[in-house]
C-alpha cells in the first residue's frame, strides 16, 4: 500500500476542498442576510443565466449539486417563496421547467453586488489575470470530465 502522505494528488484535492470550504464560509453570512441558502442562490443564478430564464428540472439537477429529488424539494421551497415557478413542457409531459420569477430576479439583484465584492476580495482579486484565465480553464476541464451534464440546457451547451 502506498503510504506517501506527501503525494501531490492528495495536496491537490485537499487544497481544492479547503479553498471551496473557505470561500463558502466567507459567502454564507451574505446569503443569510438575503434569506437565501447557497443552493437557492445557485438555482437563481443558473436560471437567470439560462435562455428564457428557465431550465428543465433535470438540467437544473445536472447543473447544481443536487439530485433530481433534491432539486424538486428546493424548487418547491423556492416556489412557495415566490422566487421561481414551474411550467409544464409543451413537448414532453414528463418534463417541467423551473423559471425564475420577477421576485427571484429582484432578490438576485439585491444579492449580487455584495456577492461580487466578496468574490473579488476572496477569489478573483487574489489572482493575476493570467492566473484567473488558467484557473477558469482548468476548472472547466475538470468540471467537464466529472460532471458532463453541468451545462445542460445552458447557452454554454448551445455554443
UniProtKB/TrEMBL annotation:
Signal peptide (UniProt feature, chain positions): none
InterPro entries linked to this entry: HTH_MarR-typ (IPR000835), MarR/SlyA-like (IPR039422), WH-like_DNA-bd_sf (IPR036388), WH_DNA-bd_sf (IPR036390)
A GO term for molecular function: DNA-binding transcription factor activity
SMART domains in UniProt: HTH_MARR
Source organism superkingdom: Bacteria
One Pfam family named in its UniProt record: MarR_2
Protein name: Putative MarR-family transcriptional regulator
HTH marR-type domain boundaries: 6-144
Amino acid at each position: 500500500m502506498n503510504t506517501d502522505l506527501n503525494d501531490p494528488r492528495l495536496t491537490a484535492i485537499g487544497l481544492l476542498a479547503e479553498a471551496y470550504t473557505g470561500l463558502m464560509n466567507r459567502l454564507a453570512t451574505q446569503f443569510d442576510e438575503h434569506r437565501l441558502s447557497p443552493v437557492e442562490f445557485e438555482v437563481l443564478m443558473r436560471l437567470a443565466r439560462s435562455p428564457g430564464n428557465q431550465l428543465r428540472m433535470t438540467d437544473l439537477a445536472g447543473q447544481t449539486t443536487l439530485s433530481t429529488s433534491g432539486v424538486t424539494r428546493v424548487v418547491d421551497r423556492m416556489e412557495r417563496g415566490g422566487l421561481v415557478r414551474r411550467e409544464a413542457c409543451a413537448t414532453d409531459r414528463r418534463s417541467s421547467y423551473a423559471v425564475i420569477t420577477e421576485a427571484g430576479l429582484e432578490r438576485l439583484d439585491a444579492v449580487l453586488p455584495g456577492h461580487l465584492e466578496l468574490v473579488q476580495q476572496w477569489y478573483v482579486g487574489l489572482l493575476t489575470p493570467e492566473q484567473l484565465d488558467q484557473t477558469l480553464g482548468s476548472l472547466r476541464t475538470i468540471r467537464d470530465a466529472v460532471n458532463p451534464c453541468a451545462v445542460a440546457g445552458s447557452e454554454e451547451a448551445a455554443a
